[in-house]
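quick one before i forget lol
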Amino acid sequence: MSTAEVNMPLLVRQSRLEVSSDGAQFPTVSGFNLNRQEFEFPRDFRGDLNLLFVPFLQFQQTIVNTWIPFANELESIFPEFAYYEFPTIDALPALSRTFINEGMRAGIPNAKARERTTTLYVDTARFMRALDIPTKNDVHVLLVARQGGILWHTTGSFDAAKGRELAKAIETYLGRAEVSQ
């Protein structure tokens, strides 16, 4: 265990959720990534453009995984682009949050993947209303500007048509054409 890990909080604190009245805006949320670092989004987004994968159920990780190769490709093409996974779970007691986060951390050996994954323990119904998400039965994929504006949204597994739509949304936002998917 590194010195940095020793100084990290062991118990995962409750996520904060602040919702604006504008449905085209990603709400302010806080959470711990799987490297045990606390973040607040959209404030801490790294990219000018940020692709967010929002799964609600454990089995949906396989759906998120269909997007990862394309997200990595986009990240290599556009220095302004970053992506994140936001597993979203109902608010739970501290020990339960910590148990879940540590279990996910143990299952993901890649440090970069752990860095990109921030679990949100929130009132999921309120979070879903803020994003106009009608059900937990699918993964939601959102392209979000640094300040939180939602630019593009889809659901489900990656396919070439969704990849083209996403690339076009990025190119339109950045004012250039670089991806030929």
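fyi The chain has one domain: 3-174.
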